UniProtKB/TrEMBL annotation:
Assembly information from the UniProt record: Homodimer.
Protein name as catalogued: tRNA (guanine-N(1)-)-methyltransferase
Residues in tRNA methyltransferase TRMD/TRM10-type domain copies: 1-224
GO annotation, biological process: tRNA N1-guanine methylation
Gene: trmD
Chief subcellular location: cytoplasm
Protein family per UniProt: Belongs to the RNA methyltransferase TrmD family.
Pfam families: tRNA_m1G_MT
UniProt EC number: 2.1.1.228
Keywords tagged on the record: Cytoplasm, Methyltransferase, S-adenosyl-L-methionine, Transferase, tRNA processing
Length: 225
């Protein structure tokens, strides 16, 4: 998989992409992540990427020309399955969407900033608009990093134990059950006996019951899907 990220602030991705699972995925060749500074595709000496909105109003808007230039350049080089725009008014990102995107070959992620991008970008280039929640961030970079992490971790071979990702919360519309590790007794707080029983069938039944109970208590909306 190849992920091209269009951003005004490429340095924001250095931390998230240089550690842990994403770093290992890149080293294994499971994913190639390429950052593109939109300012490099401007044509004026000041590398201007924003302007006032037509009709007035507060804030600035990202201009269409530099964004169109970088997208057109990338599309001339390869086919893309999706061109994603990170925006608070997009479709709410979830695990199902992460799973679907993980089946892609190549995707582009555009990080918005200021009051957003010229609507013509959304009308003519974007195939998916994604939000990571009902709140507004300073830009799309943090949201893009979240999307990339969620997608990359379910790629085959990225996590050593692939069943680990498949048993995470939301994979089956349930929250994950409680988990415990050594010691089995800490300050009198004991691990449930069933987990120490060695009976795989009982343990699996307990986990299913706990997952269902936790979901009913914390996220009953998931059971309505």
């Amino acid at each position: 998989m190849r992920i091209d990220i269009l951003t005004l602030f490429p340095a924001m991705f250095q931390g998230p992409f240089s550690e842990s699972i994403i770093k290992r995925a890149v080293e294994k060749g499971a994913v190639e992540i390429v950052l593109h500074d939109i300012r490099d595709f401007t044509q004026d000496k000041h590398n201007r990427v924003d302007d006032y909105p037509f009709g007035g109003g507060a804030g600035m808007v990202m201009q269409i020309d530099p964004i169109a230039r970088v997208i057109n350049k990338l599309k001339e080089e390869r086919e893309y399955d999706h061109v994603i725009y990170m925006t608070p008014d997009g479709h709410r990102f979830d695990q199902k969407e992460a799973n679907r995107l993980s089946l892609s070959g190549n995707i582009i992620i555009l990080c918005g900033h200021y009051k957003g991008v010229d609507q013509r970008v959304r009308d003519h280039y974007i195939t998916h608009e994604i939000s990571v929640g009902d709140f507004v961030l300073s830009g799309g970079e943090l949201g893009a990093a979240v999307v990339v992490d969620a997608v990359v971790r379910v790629l085959p071979g990225v996590i050593g134990d692939e069943t680990s990702a498949l048993t995470d919360s939301f994979q089956d519309n349930l929250l994950a059950p409680p988990v415990y590790t050594r010691p089995s007794d800490y300050n009198g707080w004991k691990v449930p006996d069933v987990l120490l029983s060695g009976n795989d069938k009982l343990i699996e039944e307990w986990r299913e019951e706990q997952a269902l109970e936790r979901t009913r208590r914390l996220r009953p909306d998931l059971l309505d899907d």
